[in-house]
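G., the chain you wanted modeled:
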Amino acid sequence: MHSIKRLLVLLAACFVVLASLVAAQKQKVTDKGNEEFLRLMRAQVAKAGVEKTSDLVFKAVVTGEKGLTYVSGQHSNIDIFVANKGTQKHTIFGVFASLTNSGDYNKVVRNLTLAGYQIPLKAGSNLTFTYPFSIETEAMELGYVLYVDYYDSEEIPHRIVAFSTPVKVVFGDSLFDLQSLSIIIVIGGLIAGGVYLSNTSTVAKTVKKEKAALPSREEVELKRSQLNEDWIPEHVLKAEKAKGKKKAQ
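Predicted structure as tokens:
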């Protein structure tokens, strides 16, 4: 009886494991299918270009006093409100933006990152989602054009301009951000190197001058001969002179 129970438990465990493996395999196939589908959608929408009309209506959600102001080099987000005004379901699968000339939105300065999504929108529904990006430019005023890729219930892809708006790019308030620190370190290294080379050159010149200023042996002997002999006793001077005459002979 116990052996039968153990066998049943073992069979049940094997069934659970097999079911999990099958589900995981199906998920992999589905994910792969989604990747291929999205790749196809992106290729088709890139060829089709930008459409002028759409059932989807977008607007930027502006909060705070600064509005659409972003710090250069920092990761930023923009909240986007979308409403489906049509009669069929649409699914957003891609969003990207372009930075343009502030006076002409057709003059592109730089394209920002393409972000992938799977956001279904039923007819008459609306929601807010976030698009992450990073701007790396000089501090200036720019145009910001947001593009949205989506496909309809018949799986036909579309690309539209969600909105165009002016934005302001500023530098960070902190003096000690990574970019500023790197600049400070480089400048400090150059200054330190210049000071070191200047001091080394000055020391070398001083040593040379000191070496050049050392008197020769003849000068030392001459100075000795020119010493004031008034303080030397007369009998010592006579003895020294006598020794000198003997050496000369």
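The mean pLDDT is 77.

Shout if anything looks off.
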